[in-house]
Amino acid sequence: MASRDFVRQLAGYGLTTAEILYRMPDHPAILQSYIWQDYDLHPRFPELTRFLEFWTTKLDGSLYSVRIAHARLIKPAELRMCDQEFLLN
């Protein structure tokens, strides 16, 4: 049986990394960094959106900025034409 993450990659999910800068609840002038990473769908990012909604409703630190990087790990195969053929016996 294939892993859950591999099945998601076949369904079009890619690895998404988000750097979240937020203000410290006790010291709002200080920014803290949090790195979030999961498999998500580009360009809407439903998993990240769900996480950020949780952040804004349940956690005290207000969001300052979110920077996103996304990469599909399983891509279509690249084909190249070759002009020679070699036979091995």
Describe this entry's structure for a reader:
The protein has helices spanning 4-10, 46-58, and strands at residues 14-23, 31-40, 63-71. The chain has one domain. With 89 residues, it is an alpha+beta fold. A 3-stranded antiparallel sheet has the order 2-1-3. The two termini are 38 Å apart.
Compute the number of structural domains: 1
Number of strands: 3
Query: How many distinct helices?
Result: 2
Helix/strand class: alpha+beta
Oligomer description? single chain
Give the C-alpha Rg: 20 Å
The unreliable regions are none
- So what's the overall shape? elongated
What is the topology, as strand order, of the major beta sheet?
2-1-3
What share of the residues lie within helices?
10-25%
Helix and strand succession?
HEEHE
Measured distance between first and last alpha carbons = 38 Å
Give the mean pLDDT.
Answer: 90
Give me a quick take on this structure.
The protein is an alpha+beta fold. It has one domain. The protein has two helices and three strands, in the order H-E-E-H-E.
